[in-house]
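Quick one: structure for this chain?
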Amino acid sequence: MKYFILLPLCFFICNLSVAQQKNCIIKGRILDSTSKEAIEYATISAFREGNTNAAGGMISAAKGVFSIDGLSPGTYKLKIDFIGYKVKIVAPVVLSDKQSTVDVGKILISSTAGALKEVTVNAKRNMLENHIDKLVYNAENDVTSQGGTAIDVFKKVPQVSVDASGNVELLGNGNVKVFVNGKPSTMFDNNLAEALMSIPASQIKNIEVITSPGAQYDADGSGGIINIVLKDNKSQGINGNVNLSVGTLLKNGSASIHARKGTFDINCSIGSNAFINSTTLSSLNRITDSTVMVQNGHSQLERNSYKPQVGFNWEINKKNNLSGSLRYNNYGNVNTGITSQQYTVDPNAAVQTYRNANNDFRDRILDGDINYKKKFDKEGEELSISLQSSMANNSTHFRQGEYYTNADSIFSGVKGSNTISDQETYLSIDYSKPLQKDVIVQVGAKGSFSRISSNSSYYTLDPNTETYPLNPSETDE
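Got it. Here's what it folds into:
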């Protein structure tokens, strides 16, 4: 009889044990409370109410997901641990026969690192920097270049070569585009060497060598782009500086004043240089069977320039910036030459003449721009809109005459002038976004409007009247 009583009792106990071991599940996701990024390898433990021993647990997998199974019905609390983060408790979590699976959803955990206040780090840049898309030469750190011009700075930039005539090449390619502060200027359209010599080195912050231009640059200049970045100043209050230098050939000077209050600053500066007048001697002796020609002469060259500018910068907030500038550049040279010539066919009757030549060149450029830049939350992602306008007017005047030495009278001569007017306006919109550490996507659109006009006048001497009537065949208006 006692066996018949124990058998049902054992059956009841077994059924009760099975009911208590029903497979219940708690699942969810672990995320960073600030960045909302998933956290992998966090430890999640489930504790039954009133029990200090874990009833189950696991490590968060990809995308921060976790799923703790093998739990019986009851009330639980979850404990989340991860290095560098505060311990997180989620409770209560109730499991029952009717709700055997509970999804607690997204669990946000906070970093234990305290937020730092704004920190300013002052350090001197290296002379040379390599970036993903460009090479930067920090000219402001080179004290040996401060008394020269942009040409002197270019000679020290890697990958850039400058010959004796001032011609610039990048990696051996002369098809180079030169920008100022990332913007084109008509000052470089006519005579690049003269324009570079009009920019004092003391105004240059750095030189950017861009061998693979991005979408924000024009397609012209297949050899690459050389961008001249001029100095700015972010010191609060009013400050300024004056630089003067005198050499055997070059006289150079610049002055600037800067005012800044809060997030708005304005700056004005002027730079000027002049080459001390230089004289070049020339001589030629040519003897043939029946004639002798002897030439002796000299030429004098005078070159000067000045460049005033004004600009402003307004940091509206950390993500929005508005800036603008207005620049004027005036440079030119005067070349005067005199050549005496003796031409002999008969030893007793030599013909003596001299030639007087004068050439005057002057270029005047006015550049203006206004720029808006917006930065986004992701570092390196930004949108920029820029409106630029440039107006140039250059003129060349020349005169040449040949005189008999004995009679001191002119018998041959020409004179003329050539003026060119160039107006260009650009509107550009550019957007860049980093996809990976070394991958940046850049897109942009640009509209350009230009107008170029040229007038050329040529006059030939009439020896009979010693006047210079217009020569229609050589004139273009």
